[in-house]
Amino acid sequence: MNEKAPPSSSWPLKIFPLFSMLGWILVSLALVLGVFFLAPNAAQYFGENAKAARDAAENGSFLLRQLQILSATPRWLEPLAFTGIASFMIGIALEFSTIPRLLVQRGNVMARTFPLIVQAERS
Amino acid sequence: MAYQKFEDPTPPLPFRQIEKMMPLYPALVLMGFLLLLISFFIGLMVLAPANLAFFAEAKEIRESAAVGSSFVNANVTRHVFETWVPQFKFFGLGLMLMGITMALGTIAGKLRLMGKVIASKIPAEQRPPTPAIPGRVRLFQLAALLGIMILLAVLIIGLVLAAGIVPAYWNHAIAGQLNPAAPGSVLLNQAGSVFSFPFWLNPLRLAGMAFLFTGITIALTVIIGTLNMQAKMLAEFARRAIKPAP
Amino acid sequence: MQIMIGKMARMFPMLILIGLAIVITSLAIGIFNAQTAAAYFSESKAVRETSLLAQRAALESTGIWLPTFKFLGLGLILGGIVMALRLIIDRLRQAGEEVLVNLPPEHRPDLPQPPWFGLLMPMVMFIGELILIWSFAVGLRTAAVARDVFANPLPVIDSAGAGSPLLTGLQQIHATESWLVPLKFLGIGTEFLAIIMGLATIIFILTRQTAVIDQAIEIGRTLNQTEEVPALAEAAG
What we know:
Chain A has 123 residues and is mostly helical. Chain A has helices at 11-47, 51-55, 62-120.
């Protein structure tokens, strides 16, 4: 009755958890870097230095290094976090992609079982 | 309801409330979409005019403008709205994702009901036992709840900042008061908070979204598991019905 | 029309792959952009604002168009999910039809027709994609304005007076960004709306199918008692 391989063993169902895990890793990385690295740096840079001092920072100074970090890091970290969100979506899409096949298989089983259920009353 | 006798026993709190809310998913989704529409119109009708007003003159003129001037007011408006509107927008997206999770939960429930109705047509001695509700159902409900709570907390933080420290800082002349602020002054301390909060608040709302996506992922595994199990149970019934056990 | 949409829905993995490729390209451009920013901000304010004009123009313009590109990628992935849902709806209906084939045609109960929101789902998904494509186009146009404005030294931009092309350009950039950012989210929200319409259609079909199958079993049993139904007898051996 059930000649095809069970859909539970199909490849999308095997790899979707990897995409969900990747999503969590990338979003967690953005959160950890944001909370423990970028936010304290920004608070220190803008909250402890007068504008005149920030503007006068010379090459190689600590202030310029902080500005470099605050300006450059979000430019890769934000797309990385969004790649994490996309990764969740891919995992979900993989799960959805297995459902049509499951429905076909369940429909076949239902169609073959229907007469037996109808007859079952007699027995 | 036609199939009331097939309903599962009422779960404990807070799942009882969640399950009661499940059929309300269209209302949640529409509310979320409405928040996104409101955000767009705020951008178009409040933020864009504020930006046009602020950037209407050369830097020297707009930055030397005194408190109460149209430039300082426009600057306060654009910063205040940019503080809470993004959080409001993400809360709207969160409501829509929660609606999707609830709709998936409803689908799992409908599949379970269909299985029970079909099983009820099979004679008791041949009827396969009804499987228990999978533990993952509670897990996806919790993940969705946690996700929306995080987004709500982010929205509240955004509103508190937008009502407090953000206007308190920006309601000053840029050249005359903000730029000369010395280390240790109230203004510079406020600057530290005003410029640093997006670095932790933005990833926090993504974490909220991640919980909601996890809820959807788990809800789908419940649906896939139910479909698989029902196919197996029917196949097993058919096998027994065709070749009765000796 | 609906048959054509049903056939197109089978191509959903392609939409998802294109979306994923766009998101990964955005990440690569973001990493490259971060290196430009690191080089730019390693110089003193006086040097970077008067000499490193190309870098500044690149940073400002990329910051405008890249997020719209990234959202287009996310939108395509969601569009793929909507198409997968359409396929699920078609398969669900076919499964119901397959079961009812066991009954003689004149005794088959009617299967539910897809509701209006199910028929509208591909249209809503398409509107969402159009919003995201339009956002990307506006992003590119605004990025071109930013490239022109920031090709000038910052002191020149700062001294530009009311009505000057430079200040008008700056106004245009900031005003456009005010509504462009929420517009992208509205595009994503429209895709979510299409997904929920698909899920609501599945719920609708499942609810009706449960009742139809229940009814079909009863019809089958009644027929079995009164007449011989070949399909039922043959299947039951």
